[in-house]
Amino acid sequence: MDLDFSISPSLPLDVQDKLNSLIQDYKDENLTVKGYQTKRKRLLDRYKDVQLNYPARTPTNIDRKHTIHIPGRNQSLSSTLRERSIGRFSPNASINNLISLDNFSIISPTKSRYNYYNNVTTPQSMYNVTTNSSIFNTPTRPSAAHKRASSIQLSLPSHDVSNDSSNYLPMIPLLPRNTEKQISSVSASPNNPLPSSLLPILRGRFEHNEGQTAIIALGLKGKETYITWDKLYLKAEKVAHELKKSKLYKMDKLLLWYNKEEVIDFTVALLGCFIAGMIAVPISFETYSLQEIVEIIKQTNCKCILISNECYKQLDNLHSTTHNTTIKLNRNEMFKNITFLKTDDLGTYSKAKKQVPTFDISNIAYIEFTRTPLGRLSGVVMKHNILMDQFNSLSDILDSKKMPFWKKSHIRKPYDKKIPLTLATKEKTSKFVIMNILDPTRSTGLIFGVLFNIFSGNLLITVDERLLQKPAGYEYLIDKYRADILLNDQLQLKQNVINYLENPIPMSERKKHKMNFNCVKVCLTSCNTVDTDVTDMVIHKWLKNLGCTDALLCYSPILTLIDFGGIFISTRDQLGGLDNFPIHNSSLKLQDDIYVNKDKLKANTIEASLTAMVNSTQSFNDYIRLESFGYPIPNTTLCVVNPDDATLVPDLCVGEIWLSSNNLINEFYQMDKVNDFVFKAKLNYSKMFSFVNEGSKTNITNSIDRLETIYNVCPPNTQFLRTKLMGFIHNGKIYILSLIEDMFLQNKLIRLPNWSHTSDISKALKSSSQNSVNSSTHGSETLKTTSSSDSSNIGSSENCLLPKYKGKRIVETHYLQQITETLVRTVNTVSDVSAFELNHYKDEHFLILVVESSLAKVSNSASLNAETSVLAVTNKQKEVLEKKMNELTDQICRILWIFHKIQPMCIAVVGRGSLPRRYCSLELANSTVEKKFINSELDSKYVKFQFDNIILDFIPHSGYYNESIFSEHLSKLRRSYIEEKNVFEQKETDSLTKWQTSGIDYRETAYDIRAPQKKMSDFGSILKILEWRVQSLPNESAFTDGGNTASSNSSNNENNIHKNVSWKSFDLIVAAFIKKIVGSKTPLFAGDKVVIMCDNSVEYVAMVMACFYCNLIVIPLKPISEKKPDEDLKFLSEIVKGYKVKRIFVDGKLNNLLSNHNVISKIFKQYKHFFPKVTSFTKLKKKSGIHIGIFKSTLKQRHSYKVGTNVNTAPSVIWVDSDRDVVKNIHVTMNQESFLNICKVLKETLQLKTTTPIFSLDSHTSGLGFLLSCFIGIYVGTATNLFSISNVMNDPKDFLIAVQNMSVTDLYFRLDTFHKIIYKASSVFENDPKLPRQKSSGKSKHSMKSNLSPNLFRNVKNIMISFIGRPSFLSVENLLARYNKVTISPRQINFVYQHHFNPIVSLRSYLDIPPIDMYLDPVSLREGIIKEVDPTSSKVYNALRLQDSGVVPVCTDVTIVNPETLMPCLEGEIGEIWCCSEANVFDYSIFNPTGKSKKDPFITEQFQSKFNKECENGLTYLRTGDLGFIRNIESTNIEGNFISLNLLYVLGSINETIEILGLTHFVSDLEKTVKSTHKAISNCLIAKAGGLLVCLIQTRPGMSEKYGNLTALVVSELMNNHGVVLDMVSFVKNSNISNRLAKYDNWNVNRSFIVKDWFNQDIDIETQFAVNYGENISMYLLSDFEKND
């Protein structure tokens, strides 16, 4: 059943894109037939419904029939195929010509509009911060399957109907030729039919040519190995006999494992498979990797391998580079069930001499696995009838070339009779000597070497390619064996000829023996494109010089299809039958080479010139010489087709060559869908008739008549083979330009007077109007005028039309072979070139050039004795090499501009011979190179970029690139735009001035749950509340330590574990600690600072409270880490010195580490002189008679503040956040009043109850974690469960069981802790699903269950995960998906937005709605505008997904404010988050390790910020320094209630943004893109310094050779996703990671430290790459462009 893949050009662009994506999904096997049909019908029906409601498109819409899609490609080539010069500048071009340019020839960028809602058409606005780019304003989403697909998507319009006078006149296909006569006396005829296979011919050779040599194989040292016809046949019969004895059946697949030099054994095995009726599959390690061979075995289900002794030894001693060992591959699991049959010593089958054979052959001869352009295997099914037709065609063509001086007759010798050797028959029986230097075991070398020799009955000589490397080696062999026919590869022959010319035969050798090529009759050269330089060199400098009689006719390029098994489709012949072939230029009828206009060729139009051929030296700049292969082989229909819409191109236009014949390859093995596309292609007549109807009505009859003629001679059901060759037909001859994968597009570049480049036509017109010159200067591409009058015409009368062309560009086609020929010819060190477009930029066509050069490898220098000298030489070599590389790339850029007028975006230089080659060819596999580039697999240490020349005028930038988006000027424009939009959308008047504010829910006080009349505000401090709890609830549970008591008490040096501590018992513990402080021999006084370092425990809380009673200022610090004790102890010493700490309190665990740990104790001794007395409070015992009350008088006497000091406002705690470098020295000061305010906010916001316990695990030394450990339980009057993070990480079972069995509703984690907890929980279920039963205490209220359930978090309603800045919701989503054994609903996860000066700015807790996703247009966001987009739209790509951070808590007001103008922001724009809250911290200090702490005026002002006087509201705000916005949503919660919420969305910190050309970017987004570029990137950092955007990258070891490739990928991804061009990329030396950067576990939170070390050159850089020249240069050039405008 034929599926409908047609796409109507009248459909809207988005519908066409969706249909294209749907078709690609089906071809990629992502959709079934039914699924494809259903989705297609649904899509088209939906479009019809829309059409009923909306008017038809206006004529200004682009006609998408010009955009075509090739499978596996994803960019558009836009060019014109009309014969006249349209769409480019020429001496006769005027502005009127340019007006008629096709839609597909010029691409016009669109300006971005800022629509807050997509379905509203916004008005024109004075707000002009628009991105001048054709890409980034309207990004489109690529297919998921092709996000990293190959680069080019061709668009070759089949016709040109933009002008009313033009008509679509398709080319008439070249029909099969009827040759005038049968050249060969033994050719197929009714009386002499062609055998169905080679086997009857082989039997005939055996019977009638016994003893005559069939094949001679020349080994490495020139040793001859030969076989006669009788031996060849009998050995093949022996192989067939052995196969028939085994348990194999007809059509079974057999692997033939032979090396190239084992051609005779291979031929015997292959013919044996033919005789046995089995299908051969040639393989070897010389052609395939082990992985590919295994894949072939699996595909073919092979059970037997025919192999030589040498290859079997290779299997038995395969070396593993990974483990440096020898592998016995034949004993491997994959090969142990496969039978190996060694054919070297099988001998002959003598019984076959007398038996009359009856050959029962299969239809298939063999299957040859070639590689697709992307390197995948595809099995070419070679059938016997195809081979026989190929042999017959080649023999007829060779016989047609016979010249009178040939002493030998027909190429094909009789096989069915023996001709006696007489003088009369000598000419007929004389054999041709065929010398083959191709691989004889596959492709063209197998077909036209080994098998054609059997067909023709001549002598084949196969040459080991290593023999050709000797001086004059090939020439010597040709002369020695008097070869008649040479079979070569074009690049192989080129290298041989170059070697001969560079190392000619010495004079002494010439005197001994004169080399003579008069024996050579035909030189068949296999290729896809003809290199005219090679042709001239071979003919004039090689064949003629060495005595070839008729070198011009002797040399014959042969067009072979390597990807289709090596068959040929064209070569030069004298068969005739050309009556129906078109003659485009009778003057060039006999010419095989023509001169084509270069500019028109770029527009895919062919204009051949006889004058240019006569004056070839003068026409070099304007014309290119192309050489034909000749006519198509007989019995073949040929068309030149638009490869995307399957329509015939007009005459003399470029397209894909399609062939139709019954004797061509028609199948890939087990690739049915690919077979339908490649081998069963059909012409699209409906599309072609529609083209005719769209054309001019005056000459429509001619078009219809021609199309009907084509319809009759080539019916619609005719099936064609897509050759993947791009070419054209001229005078009936085939001219090939390149493979589809080897062509690319480029915007036509214009060099302006300031030597910068642009592809904007308007700039060229402007330049032309200002400069009345006769021709362009300095080889530039400015408009050329024939006279001053022409120039003035453009400059004056039509200058008013220039705005119409602003931003428009012309796209041209270029071919890799032409680029390669130019560079190899002009640059000595360049040997080969690969070129392709980046797949990101459809309109920009950014070109990547990968060059093979001898400079890429440093030459070995003389050995030196001293290591320092060697290092110095190495550095000097690097400098010299870099200089040479710069000169090389500069030269390449100059040459490409001079000859082709193109400029690559990036040039990568690799070593000679390092790029992958096509299957069975020396040509580069361009698509495979591109694939390796995309995967960062190219060994390129040197790359060069030139963004300034390519994209500067189209790079995303603000119209005001010198201003910040928050400047007063742009803010006014933005506000005017938003207000205008609101009026246009008919919003209420009040909405025009609506601020983004959260509103405030103020609670004056909180009430105790047990005593509802008790105001918590009546208490002056947390100590008063604690005393009240002890008095009113003495026996209720207050605190408990989590963890296993039995295991924790195993050591006397470990911490005490307190279970179910009542308020009264807690009073006793605090009193014991107070007694220790009061009774200390080293007295402490009020206001002294003390450090508490211990795990989260009851004793930790008690010690904090004891210090409060003594009016000591507590500095809680995390315990010393065993991983980095040196760094932690150094930091502790700085804290002690800076704050003049009087005492350090530690628990038993830390005291044990400091005293007894092998490493930590030694380091501690080094710093001990810095430290005051260290007191361990673990061993202190509580006594029943000692309580807090008895110390009241003592504390009042010894530890009270001075008179007049307010105890409640005096500092109590200093929070130190050592995890984030930005705030590491900004310490928060808290007093009792601040603590009570935050506790009130938390209690009222979370509605905390006395029946639900508090769980404290994370961050117990600062912020929200400190409050949960020490304050919330006391304030609310509920039990607090304290867990040590280190203990939980070692054994999480106790914590998990407690969460599961206790009625805890609120949990607080940081993201990394939550990750570890979920990982540990998942590991428990994987490794130990049933935990051992625990003995529960009879006194315990909760009976612990013995087993954990996957739904252990079922009771927890509020899992709070804190974020500083934008929440990492993707990490949370991935975490839940990865560890799905633990059941957690996304509704349970609630983000908490924290700030250094406010631990709870906003939160999602108990909102009863899932997180609200927003997808923002990234371009608008960079300009400060909130533009929401539809993520399901095919036109949306790279939208920024955000999730809200919830609503503000009680007693809090958040407003979005412009950070520069201090004006509140309107809805639809971003601004700084300002917070007015009772949860704000009390104070701060700038820590100074060497002196007194101080304050910073800017931060102080940050605490006391107010709005601009124009909108002052009387409130004082805390400036968070974070950017974000507030959005009001109306929704229905779980209970069905309608709610309205002002949700806060956080974008990130202002100090982590960078401004580039007036646009604001968040470095977190940039760094995320860099990390996603390649899996080898482990860390990265992007910063802006001195106008340069720089990137520091850390990779896994082993990537140093690929740094250049990796740099290009990083630059490309940032440009694609963000419109940002890096200026420099640096790579950290891997050896340096272990020392300098080792202390930075997380680069994101240590950004400033790393940047400081980097800029101070404290980080060893292995290599760095300069990419661009910085923002300042860009601004200068942009301003220069604006002056020209």
SSE blueprint:
Elements (H helix, E strand, L loop, with lengths): L12 H15 L5 H21 L41 H5 L6 E2 L91 H10 L4 E6 L5 E5 H17 L7 E5 L5 H14 L2 E5 L6 H11 L3 E4 L1 H8 L1 E3 L4 E3 L11 E4 L21 E8 L5 E7 H17 L25 H4 L3 E4 L6 H14 L2 E5 L9 H9 L3 E5 H13 L4 H6 L9 E6 L4 H12 L7 H4 E7 L5 E5 L21 E5 H5 L7 H5 L8 E5 L9 E6 L4 E2 L6 E6 L11 H8 L5 H10 L5 H14 L7 E10 L2 E7 L3 E5 L2 E2 L5 E2 L2 H10 L17 H10 L11 E7 H11 L3 E8 L9 E7 L13 H34 L5 E6 L14 H9 L7 E4 L1 H4 L17 H17 L37 H11 L4 E5 L3 H4 L12 E2 H16 L10 E5 L4 H12 L3 E5 L7 H15 L3 E4 L1 H9 L3 H8 L5 E4 L15 H7 L12 E5 L10 E6 H15 L7 E3 L6 H8 L1 H5 ...
Parallel strand pairs: 2-13, 4-5, 4-6, 6-9, 12-13, 12-14, 14-15, 15-16, 30-31, 33-42, 35-36, 35-37, 37-38, 41-42, 43-44, 44-45, 57-58
Antiparallel strand pairs: 1-28, 2-3, 7-8, 10-11, 16-17, 18-19, 20-21, 20-22, 22-23, 23-24, 25-28, 26-27, 29-30, 31-32, 33-34, 39-40, 40-51, 45-46, 47-48, 49-50, 50-52, 52-53, 54-55, 56-57, 58-59
Description:
There is one protein chain. The chain is of the alpha/beta class. Among the domains are: 1-61, no CATH class; 386-575, 3-Layer(aba) Sandwich (Rossmann fold), CATH 3.40.50; 586-654 and 681-744, no CATH class; 814-859 and 871-946, ANL, C-terminal domain (GMP Synthetase, Chain A, domain 3, 2-Layer Sandwich), CATH 3.30.300; 968-1001 and 1425-1551, Luciferase, domain 3, CATH 2.30.38.10; 1557-1685, 2-Layer Sandwich (GMP Synthetase, Chain A, domain 3), CATH 3.30.300. It contains 49 helices and 59 strands. An eight-stranded mixed beta sheet has the order 3-2-13-12-14-15-16-17, with helices on both faces. The protein has a five-stranded antiparallel beta sheet with strand order 21-20-22-23-24. Strands 5-4-6-9 form a four-stranded parallel beta sheet, with helices on both faces. Helix 31 (1063-1078) crosses helix 32. The chain is elongated, with a radius of gyration of 41 Å. The chain starts with 12 loop residues before the first helix and ends with a helix. Mean pLDDT is 82; it is low at 49-156, 160-165, 181-187, 772-802, 858-873, 989-993, 1045-1053 and 1329-1345.
